[in-house]
Amino acid sequence: MEGNPLHYVEKIRPIADKYGICKIVPPKGWKPAPFCVDMKGDKRFQTKQQLLHRIQEGISFGDGVEYSAGQYQHMASQRAKEWKAKHYPDHEQMTKLVNSGKEEEEGVQENRNRKRFIPENLERDYWDIIESHSRQLVVEYGNDVNTDEFGSGFPLSERGRSIYGKKDPAKMALPEPKFGTEDYYRETWWNLNNIPCAPDSVLRHVKVGINGINVPWMYYGALFTTFCWHNEDNYLYSINYHHKGAPKQWYGVPGNMTAADGLEKVFKNFLSMKMRDVPDLLHHITTMFSPRLLQNADVPVYKLLQHEGEYVITFPRAFHGGFSLGPNVGEAVNFATHDWISYGSDANERYRSFARPAVFSHDRLTFTMANHLREQKTYSTCKLLLDEIERVVGEELRLRSKLVEAGVRDVTNLINLPKNRLDQLDSESADYDDKRLCHACKHVCFFSAVACECSQSKVSCLRHSHYMCRCPMDRKYFMIWSDDDELKTTLQKVRDHCESLKKLHTTPSPTKLIPGGTSDGLAPGVTKDAEMHKKDEICLDPVAEDVKHAVKHDDRQFSAMKMAMPMRSKMSMGGPAGPPSGLQLQPAPAPEPAPQPPAMEAVPMVRRVSQDASAPSSEDDDDEIEIIAVKPPPTTTTV
Questions:
Q1: pLDDT tens digits, residue range 531-542?
Q2: Which domains, ranges and CATH numbers included, belong to the chain?
Q3: By the 8 A CB rule, do 175 and 187 touch?
Q4: I want to staple 464 with a disulfide (CB 3.0 to 4.6 A). Which of 57, 163, 194, 440 is the partner?
Q5: Cβ distance 238 to 230 under 8 Å?
């Protein structure tokens, strides 16, 4: 697991992207330490109450009970044990018979398996509740738990590799820590606190902490707690690590246009009445429907089983969803490689059509990438950036010209506006962007905006100036942060760099990829994953009683993560517009009555295909799954 995970993702992408989701199994010797969440602390997080028998309806989740991490695990353990006792009372007896080695008729063996508390049967139970409404069941999910308050499962970097990690000069001068050492897990780019800032990561230029984007969220799961169908904000990649506990059942739909559009069409048809009132319902992440619906509509859908100590990657625009098979603790964060830029553009356009604020300005990040051209090392990725810059600049200049012809005044020389910062996206820049959202589509007016004398609180992007008010165009005026020359200069720089890469033939030769599948055309790892689906035994003991003793026994340092810097989040980023804080834009008088600058507003069974990106798996000595197990995750084959 040494090296840059982004480079690994680039190697497996030609294969894994076809499935939308992919499982990465760490090599032998992978034993992350310490587990930094204080399971005995008193601090409580809010859970969400999920009505499984109504989760197909797209209704919002209400607030559940507040729990500490330890309390939640005890609750989740008790609920799972109750389910096992009620629905699988003969589990131990059937397991002994199945494992006895005695050959039985196929029907007898299958009947015994149906009486066991194993993933295959729990998956059947889950969809029976959702599709058939066989029983009413309410579960409480500890999702989106802020790591700044409750700690990450990974230790924080001391070499400045995460948003809130320390920068110890003495540590930074040392060689890279060796695999398996405690320092390694603190500094490896596979640490979820670090991966957004890894070399060649687009998000490394986002210096402000955004919860759930470049600062991980924790997920406390229980039997049948559900992460509903969705794709990531701004169509980013995501990486999910399973720290401890019962497996998670994942479903994935590829992010290509045919598959993703197919899921959206199924969603709209399934909830057509609801979406008349809530057109952006899919973005609410409150709906889970059976993969059977997707299969019936010829939408490709795949699944995998994630165990503790394993990663799951989701690819840009890929839809994914799933549920937990018992108590567990996971963690997730986003990242982006340079190939993401076109997906980010698509997401930006999608959000504008729903008037949904993005978590960060796509235009700002695009031009920040253009300001760091040394990072563009291949012609293919640089061409993607060039295409986006040409599109953005072309539209900006064209609309400016049309609006001038329509009568919008250019008072650039009369208004003193701050220049856009293009080296990074810091907290101050993000706050400023929140205050220049288009009144109509909530797009960050990064290059320019249109304002009107009639309002002290509205601005619009160049596309939607006519939605802002009914005033004649001659009462409206431009607010320009990046003039025509700056836009043209940036575009030319990217063109020149792209051309130089093309001449140097720096496009990399084909890389040796991870094996692309089995002889029958299935994805790597599918056979082992299917076997686990039938034989995994799920232990239901919580970690709360003994986690500290275990950490001490393993000679690990138990620590909670403490942060003091200001935070943003997926939920609040680019939120509703409001009065500015300390931002006053003063225009000079114009020949006409001087325009007053606004006080700016702020998925039953599917094909058993799991995309396991490891090399061919070695035999596992221990197939048991321990819920919140204290021991290190079972060793697996090197990826």
A1: 666 666 676 766
A2: 5-86+137-336+519-567 (2.60.120.650), 343-507 (no CATH)
A3: no
A4: 440
A5: no
